[in-house]
Amino acid sequence: MAESIKILTDKIGIEGIENFDVYRKNGGYKAVEKAIKKMSPDEVLDEVKKSGVRGRGGAGFPMGMKWGFLAKPEGVPRYLVCNADESEPGTFKDHYLMKSNPHLLIEGMIISSFTLGANTSFIYVRGELMYVIYILEKAIAEAKKAGFLGKNILGSGYDLQLVVQPGGGAYICGEETALLESLEGKRGNPRNKPPFPAVKGLYQCPTVVNNVESISTTPWIVLNGGESYSKIGLGRSTGTKLISASGHINNPGVYEIELGLPVEEFIYSDDYLGGIRPGHELKAVVAGGSSVPILPAALILKTADGNSRLMSYESLSEGGFQSGTMLGSGGFIAMDETTCIVRNTWNFARFYHHESCGQCSPCREGTGWMDKVLYRIEHGLGNERDIDLLVDVAKRIEGNTICPLGDAAAWPVASAIRHFRDEFEWHIKYPNEAIKYQAVYKGDMIKV
Amino acid sequence: MDIKPELFKVTIDGIEVEVSPGTSILQAARKIGTEVAPPAMCYYKPLEKSGGKCRACLVKVAQGSTNDPRPMPKLVASCITPVQNGMVVENFTNEQVVDTRKGIVEFLLINHPLDCPVCDQAGECHLQDFAFENGNGVQRFEEERRTFEKEDIGPYIQLQMNRCILCYRCVFTADQITDGRVHGVMNRGDHAEISTYIHKTIDNDFSGNVIDVCPVGALTDKTFRFKNRVWFTKPMEAHRDCDKCCGKVHLWYKGDEIIRVTGRKNQWGEVEDFICNTCRFEMKKTSDWIVTGPVNISRHSVISANKYAANTIKKPEFALDYAAEHYKKINDSRPYNKNLDEIKASEDYKTLMEQNENYLNKSQN
Ligand SMILES: Cc1cc2nc3c(=O)[nH]c(=O)nc-3n(C[C@H](O)[C@H](O)[C@H](O)COP(=O)(O)O)c2cc1C
Ligand code: SF4
Ligand code: SF4
Ligand code: FES
To answer: pTM of the predicted model, to two decimals?
Structure first.
């Protein structure tokens, strides 16, 4: 196996690593000591900026730049909020990271809060993950006892209180401003932007919201320097990324990969997914969680220009939405030829219909509409104009909503039709075939 | 020292206007007049935090400002986007805006019951106006409409949730002008509904104002229910000394009888002075009021039909003949119509439906 760099998962697998003592013995909290005792907040910020690490929650915004935008008015508290609401279908890396190595996130939270000057920080955890919340709370208590949290951390005069807040189990509360509303105890409706959280966030104070994985990179960056981090990866996709791999592959699970790994190697190498299950072949991939455009096998392995497709922000989005997709949150769903794309698309559409907060009309009404039309097509009740209708509805939602959930609902539908239109047509043309349980379009029209 | 605040120059649909910094695009457009003002289904000036939701007011910012002339990449909600100096905005002159707005009309209508013939709001409904002025006039939605259970929220206010467009105005009203909100939005997505907390009734001196702010017939006056169509009633301006509110109202007459009392709406359909429930629901005698004269109603409004020599309006002659001539049996060649019964009778279909049913039930629990 190629020697690969592990930044986030290196300690996972060590017996008892979820306990403070074991974590500490294995080099844990050294980064906090270094940051708080030897560095100033600005020095840490500098390292994070140099690292080029980008937000791992989906949008890929450079973390150092985001931190740099934080407003710092006199006498107003600042907050750091960790987004652990992970509810995107196909993404389960934060869950894995928090339950396997809770102290890593806490260490990252201390460093990040110190850098941003936050004295109260929050971890907003998806409500369904109650057991993870208990793990985190235990870890926080241990860290506090050891003097890494609470008042006057390591004698530096810096205070930090860390609060774990369970969410109510709504996907929309992963959107950063909905999360802040929810954290304030209100209904989780996304806010209109501007103002952005960096200016008016939690309780109208400057706030940074970052993903679990993003925050967990900070201990490594502090210990090894931003420059070393920026040398890992490829171009502007620096560092490593956790990929949640699922679907018809031999080895599903969470993988830490160096950005820039060829997709082909990732799918077929035994170090990673180990190929498609025996006797089957790859049909399509959703590369970054349910919200990103689906790509057929040919386009995920090679770009439209014939270049090898790599696991990086730039390479995956090469070709725009015409022939590319996005790295998103790294939820890699592989589907073999037994997958009905129409059914899959309907399933995604149902999800967004169910999760839309209902504030803005295009998303509230459009997600339900697409769900209903896709339901009909899948159940042999489609008609020819439905396909163009779906494309049009998706287009009318996209870009016209308050938060990106509208786009996230539109893209899977639009891309499925873009790349698998024949499959939709087949469902409409041969409704008798389409309604057979597990009917799958095999590429040529069946004679009826 | 020059204390006059600097004014921003903004161009909307080719017309220039000067407004103070902090003004929204929508307000700047309203300053120019109805011909360029974007429609607004959720924004309501007297209510803080309103706006941004319905997306009816989306406009194109073709030039951000004099300093940064780049256009904004997406359409923006004009009701909540502040102007910049030198901003150039396209509203009715931009094809994308007009087209997107058609889409918004369609979205707002797909689950709307279209029961205007029995809706008390008809004639003064903003959704009717919005759809009529900006819509496409075609219907592409063939699915079943979403519906809600009926809910009684008290003696004065009729809630018809099926008609609600979730503008949140009534929620802000209850928050900002009554002492204690007992209703709000429950659930998510297209199943989000206005409801009271565990079936409480709304009982508050100023609760009736939610009727006036509601752009559609989701919240209507129970004391006016089915009494008359608004265009057959005659609005009069009136006031009285009230110890709770400003006492400035519109009285809606049917003959000599006051059948409804509302707040005074301005040109944009907004009530600026909210009124109390006593004035609204209990003062239904002319002797309760000092009547100052008829309400000035624009010719454009259907409410004017009764006032401006209705008999001089020409009857559309063609209607019936035209309809008869063009009435054809609809030729529906959709494939499912042909073999729908066949499909439904098949074993595969039954199995599939069962599986689906289980699947859906499971995932909903
Ligand atoms: C509908 C929706 C759901 C989201 N869910 C999550 C989530 O579960 N976890 C997350 O980290 N970011 C989520 N995001 C992205 C956040 O809004 C935000 O961009 C992110 O937390 C920023 O952190 P990062 O810069 O570290 O990626 C979601 C965004 C949207 C629009
Ligand atoms: S896009 Fe959807 S989820 Fe986002 S604010 Fe609008 S209705 Fe809510
Ligand atoms: S009931 Fe009326 S005012 Fe309240 S949200 Fe619905 S449409 Fe708006
Ligand atoms: S009026 Fe601006 S979004 Fe509704």
So the answer is: 0.90
